[in-house]
Design brief:
alpha/beta; 221 residues; globular; 6-stranded parallel sheet; Rossmann fold; 6 strands; 10 helices; 38% helix
């Protein structure tokens, strides 16, 4: 039985915004073999400061509100608390660990790790198990159109250059990776939080999400 392919897009979701929807929909549009994209809301990104984080339960709820606005492909986008549940069971907060547990927990699903070109450039610094990500899972990397320095010079790209597959031919085979040309979206969670704190109306989250943030006094409001 053929496994369904699930793009896993890690997100602090503080808050999730239309820029996240933009890259998720781009993945669905450019990878014909991808069935769904799941926003994997992380309990905490170890590379980011905890200050200013809304509680994860609120981030999950806001992410659900935002995902509902994704149009006709919305049924192929999901918000997942899988990584949050892993933390509650004391599981290490690391991408390779999360993917391993996901694969074991959902044997009928093939996880496809989705990340930005900036992460490709530094994935070799993600601890001892980073090679497992490139060798045991399909990987999609979001790039800007045209030349991309991460593609040419990232240690991971050089080490796994023979595993690269053009996006049109990418069939989500574990151990292969591809680049997706994605126009940069101007949305920024940092700017959204700054706008909220100063009383401005953010452009890239909905009125419903803003109302929720104000109701629970989140993100410095």
């Amino acid at each position: 039985m053929k496994k369904r392919t699930i793009g896993i897009l890690g997100a602090s979701a503080n808050p999730l915004h239309v820029g996240h929807l933009h890259v998720a929909l781009a993945a669905l549009g450019q990878l014909p073999s991808l069935d769904e994209v799941w926003f994997m809301v992380t309990p905490h990104n170890p590379l980011k400061d905890r200050a200013g984080y809304a509680p994860v339960e609120h981030r999950l709820h806001m992410a659900h509100l935002t995902a509902r606005e994704s149009g006709e492909l919305g049924h192929r986008l999901k918000v997942s608390d899988f990584e949050v549940q892993l933390q509650r069971f004391g599981v290490e907060n690391a991408t390779a660990v999360m993917l391993e547990h996901f694969r074991d927990s959902y044997p009928s699903l093939q996880p496809v790790w989705l990340m930005g070109a900036d992460n490709l450039a530094q994935i070799h610094q993600w601890g001892d198990r980073w090679r497992e990500i490139m060798e045991e899972y399909p990987v999609g990397v979001f790039s800007r159109p045209g030349a991309n320095l991460a593609f040419e010079h990232a240690p991971a790209a050089q080490q796994y250059g023979k595993a690269f597959v053009a996006s049109q031919a990418f069939s989500c085979v574990p151990g292969t990776w591809t680049m997706l040309d994605t126009l940069t979206h101007p949305a920024s969670a940092t700017e959204i939080r700054q706008q909220l704190a100063s009383g401005e109306q953010p452009e890239y989250i909905s009125d419903e999400v803003v109302a929720y943030i104000k109701q629970y006094k989140l993100l410095g409001v």
